[in-house]
Amino acid sequence: MGQLAYYSVLYYVPYPFRNEQVNVGIVSFLPSGDVRVHIADNLRKVLAVHPAANINEIKDLSVTIPAFLKQVGCTGEDIFNVLSKFGAVKCFPDPCMFSYVGEEGYESMVENILLSLVNPERKKSKRNVTDRLFSDIKETFKAYRWLGYDDKDINNHMIVTRFPVAEDFGIKAEFALKNGKLHLIESVDLRLGTFSQKRQEAMSKMLIFDVAARERNETVNSYVVISGEEIKNMKPIVSLLDRYAENVVRWDVPEDVENFLTSMEGATGKIRTPLFHSPDGEGN
After folding, report:
1. Residue 89 is part of which domain span?
2. Does residue 282 form part of some domain?
3. 260 in Cβ contact with 249 (< 8 Å)
4. CA atoms of 267 and 265, how far apart (whole Å)
């Protein structure tokens, strides 16, 4: 005799201020009262939209979500409503249903749902990536409430954009932060343009740091954020940046991004919000 299970898709929201989400798994409620969470094996789409995402933390939701629901005493179909309200990984409040026979039948249904609703498509997207790296960095800062509204906010330990480092020459840094010393952040998106264009851009970014230090007569902590290192013929540019830039952050490498964001967290004095937390603010 078949049994009926309720389920809802879990999705990751990398930037609260941008209409973008990635399906990462499903949460199900069984007739026995058990809550199960199934996370997709391949989470490459998550890293594509948010390189700083903690993939291990998302995978651990198979344990942390049931523990959280048990802690708050939530059971039945109410679990979907609760999980739709907290954290960066949410589910839809109105569940769907499927019928299954035995554990093998349940696993088969879950696999089919993941394949149709969660697992990423294998076709490569032709999405325009113009200015995507700059936008991703900016949206990350905004999501953590580090981004100021105008140049004056730099005095409040906020990150500001298009900051004039040498007004007489019309030179501006993409991002700037001041906390004891000046932090400047520039991006070089190697996915766009030719080799000669990217080489010239990389050299101009390093010039910005040098001009800023000389014109403002202060210590400058500089960062160059890059993406697309693996693209053919771009290795010499990466080597140039590695040799002469103070800090090179590879936006495609989660460990690099995490270290970079930790540095920004310390410089701004504003901690990041955990990915998934209970209503009282304590992680699970």
Report:
1. 3-117
2. no
3. yes
4. 6
Q: pTM for the full model? A: 0.55
152/232 same-domain check: yes
In a domain, 111, yes or no: yes
**Tokens 């594509």 sit on residue:** 48
| Helices and strands, number each (H, E), in the chain | 9, 10
Indicate whether 56 and 142 sit together in one domain.
Answer: no
DSSP string computed for 25-51: EEEEE-TTS-EEEEE-S--HHHHHH-T
CA separation for the pair 152, 214 (Å, rounded): 21
Q: At what angle do helices 195-216 and 235-244 cross, to 10 degrees?
A: 10
Number of folded domains that form the chain: 2
By CB atoms closer than 10 A (0-12, 13-18, 19+), residue 85 is: exposed
H-helix or E-strand spanning residue 99: strand 96-100
Q: What is the pLDDT of residues 92-151, one digit of tens each?
A: 888 888 888 888 889 988 888 888 788 755 544 444 444 689 999 998 898 888 999 888
Asked if residue 185 is part of any domain, the answer here is: yes
Q: What is the pLDDT of residues 144-178, one digit of tens each?
A: 889 998 888 999 899 999 999 887 778 899 999 99
Check if the beta carbon of residue 90 is closer than 8 Å to that of residue 82. no
Instruction: Please indicate, yes or no, whether residues 170 and 201 belong to a single structural domain of this protein.
Output: yes
